Amino acid sequence: MALAEASKPRDDSHFPDIVELNVGGQVYVTRLQTLVAVPDSLLWHMFSRRTPKELARDTKGRFFLDRDGFLFRYVLDYLRDLTLVLPDYFPERSRLRREADFFQLRELAKRLSPQVSKDNSISEEISQSDTEDGSLQGAEAALLRAGSAARSPSSDSRKSGYITVGYRGSYTIGRDIQTDAKFRRVARITVCGKTSLAKEVFGDTLNESRDPDRPPERYTSRYYLKYNFLEQAFDKLTEVGFHMVACSSTGTCAYTSNDPGEDKIWTSYTEYVFCREQ
Fold it and tell me: What is the pLDDT of residue 19?
């Protein structure tokens, strides 16, 4: 009888108060009341009008959403208190607006939409966080608008600076130094430099998960790219005016066994320094 109760399937008729989500591979834990905070939104319909057994789950039983896991953190922050707060430098605004549209968060999408001025020019909203009345006041707003109008995208993109791209790779050379060396996949391409420059160059191909809220004028050595092709990184750097000024590499050699006639495994770490001048 005890065995029969232990094997009883879980109750899928109600959602728990604490909900675990897998959004594009990123795991989030939040309250059910947060997910249903905005009536008629997609999450509201999923977690108030449907049952747990109707929703997709991953292998660990978490509710699965096939969306951008990095941007979902901002969606979840908005649902907690219905306030939009973004970092000072946030190049993913249009992609976040697309996520807001998908989740049917109309007010969030509206706040993320480009603002149309009286002269019919379109510019991104200057303030990255909402004030109590939803707008900046008086002279402060006027000064910010004037500063935004005077700053052109081309001048922003020409900020001088350095970016260092590094990678650790390994390859195997067989007996008698055979020509067909067995190269192994580059595990990760790291990016070091000023945060604003790194985001400008690599955009949404930059993985910021190890240092997500670094201010734009600070430096980081914890970013890496979402791909493993050095040439692709070089292309992106040259497209925005960077050129290589230095390169350094170190390497070590090891045998796969004590027999010196066996394959040799070479491991190397290489850095490329790129510069852009105004």
Answer: 95
